[in-house]
Amino acid sequence: MIELTIDNKKIEVEEGTTILKAARKAGVEIPTLCHFELCDMGIENKPGGCRICVVEVEGRRNLAPSCMTEAQNGMVVHTHNIRVLNARTTVLKLIISDHPFDCLVCAKSGQCELQSLAIQFGIRSQPYEGEQSRYRKDTSPSIIREVDKCIMCRRCEMMCNEVQTVGALAAVNRGFMSVVAPAFEMNLEDSPCTYCGQCVSVCPTGALTEVDHTNDIIRALSDPAKTVVVQTAPAVRAALGEEFGLPPGTLVTGKMVSALRELGFDYIFDTDFSADLTIMEEGTELLQRLQRHLEGDPEVRLPILTSCCPGWVSFFEHNFPDLLDVPSTAKSPQQMFGAIAKSYFAEKIGVNRKDMIVVSIMPCLAKKYECQRDEFKVDGNPDVDYSISTRELAAFIKQANIDFLNLPEGNFDDPLGESSGAGVIFGNTGGVIEAACRTAYELYTGKRLEKVDFHALRGMEGIRSATVDFDGLPLHIGIAHGLGNARKLLNDVRAGKSQYHAIEIMACPGGCIGGGGQPYHHGDSEILSKRIAAIYTEDERKVIRKSHENPSIIRLYDEYLGKPGSHKAHHLLHTEYFPKSNEVTFNLM
Amino acid sequence: MRWKGGSGRLGERESGRLGSSNFNQINISMNQKINIAPTVFDYMEKLTGSDGVEVRVNLPKEKIDKINDICNDFGNDPGELINVLHEVQHTFGYISAEVQDIVAHNLHLSVAQVYGVVTFYTFFTMIPKGEHPVSVCTGTACYVRGAERVLDEFRKELGVEVGETTPDGRFSINCLRCVGACGLAPVVLVGEKVHGRVSPDGVKAIIAEYKK
Lengths: 589, 212
Fold this sequence. Notes:
A: Ubiquitin-like (UB roll), Alpha-Beta Plaits, four-stranded parallel sheet, B: 212 residues, Glutaredoxin
């Protein structure tokens, strides 16, 4: 332990601690811009590039960037004297001098960390005139890049390369010309981008934002000829409240349903329902493969991988094109919902699928891309028409003058709104496989599962493994969240070294609750833990907590699909995967 | 129902539809754009990188083998990226997009990261040099003896800027700083050959010498 003085406060910290962290421990807040940390997950970005966090260290000639400088024994640090404040203000003004002044129309306005600093520092003028960066705007199915607004904090680069190992973005060029871009400054759409949206969730400014489909939805809602159906993903209810000032981890399921009703959606359904459906299909597939494996069939591919996460699906299509037969063929809950809504439900209410608009509210940006994929269309009509993020829904509710906090608790409509607790926990890392275990156990053993909580499968570690006892059969389960962790497990599968029977993968750290479309957490990992806890609370409150006991699911199979894995179920609920080669240069030539 | 029955149009937002990108040029720098010809699959070699991932590249096999050899010589170590790129440029004269693709696969890096390094160092170039690369010395001695005017004359005669290559691929212009022949200032190198005491009037003759 070493002792140092920060703003006249004496503090003891471990050796190797940065001044920034020591100050936070002492209760002294130093402003930062490029620095970013999700401490529970070991994610940290400290390129020391922005110099907003400079402090004065007695005896040192120049100011020190506190995020990069290690605290020394006996150090005396001043974080807020005139010299420091002047330096910070100058640095900020220089950054702003090459930043567009269009805050009024910027998608990030109100959430922008650069804007917050300008407010905090009381910036009222911008004296530096000079060259301004001008780049073309790059629009992909999910993400918009407006690089003029990039301040080179390089958080997105860290997320894309170190955490996700996707490698779509990197800093290119030099000096004033430097910018974060895909290789050869190609469009994101032509790069290996998976649209996981983690770059968007860490971008401090409006340089990376999501494609907004709110106006398309308003158009659909105002068209009397259209029946507009909405589904809400599990992770949305655990985070939407944050946008209305509620503490992180507040469940707003009922208010969310009421808000959607106020917005004018004709039917308000739940993606949790189709999550239960996913378990029926994926669980059956797992048991079939397991059965064949136990019978000694050498052709069967184990482990089975979950396929609910479109970022993850893109990732393996790009990086593991040789393993396309390993993931489950089950569609994601979003797409299962769309397929059932525009067949079973459309027939039930006598509406032509062309007159039905299916909207999904997702914590995710990759879902925007997923619903546009060709294999999820019938004669060019997509199963899910528009996918909007939790953030877009919040903005939509505000735009419609709805007093969210005082809304009554509403209920989902029948029949696609009924769900079990197993469907809810899809939002958390480990949740899909836990839900699958609850159903697969009972189907495999024929016995009743008394304790439905599989605590061994929960947690925040990037890669987790557990063995679940299926009445004498030890089922080895692997869980990864974050695509970099997924890559490690997949490399083992490719090398034939994997010991797992089933692996659950979610692209975003923490699972869907940490998705690219969720309210910005600004590096506060406690927010993610609270969302996770909220999801488990919602699960505990449910009377039915196993997917196969959901009465609406049972009825759907009775009336329409037959049984899990039937011909009709395969046609509607399963998909196939396509290799996306990494031959980036092909697109260029 | 907040929206039904209303009339009027909503403003457009970003379409964000799949396949909406229209990508046919890359920005090498902000001012310079290179148009890219439609795909011509002359070569189609399969290559398994050291990461075990198979990529297909639009290069002849000898070239790919050569790049693989260079990467192997440096142990396919990502920390050796700059050395690998040096060697690749020395061999091919420039570092094309395809070449970066192969280097990235061998060194376990993303192409974006390799491209980042290529664009960071001015020494690396993605533009093929001409058959006869013209290098005008703009070091102190050559500069005071009129290298600037000589350079202007080359730009005028060849119709390309510094760092560019003539459309027929015969000539490219570059500047360099001092070749150690200050007594001959201003000095122009064409390929490996040194031309001393070059005057703007003599530029035409030098070009003609190589046009033969």
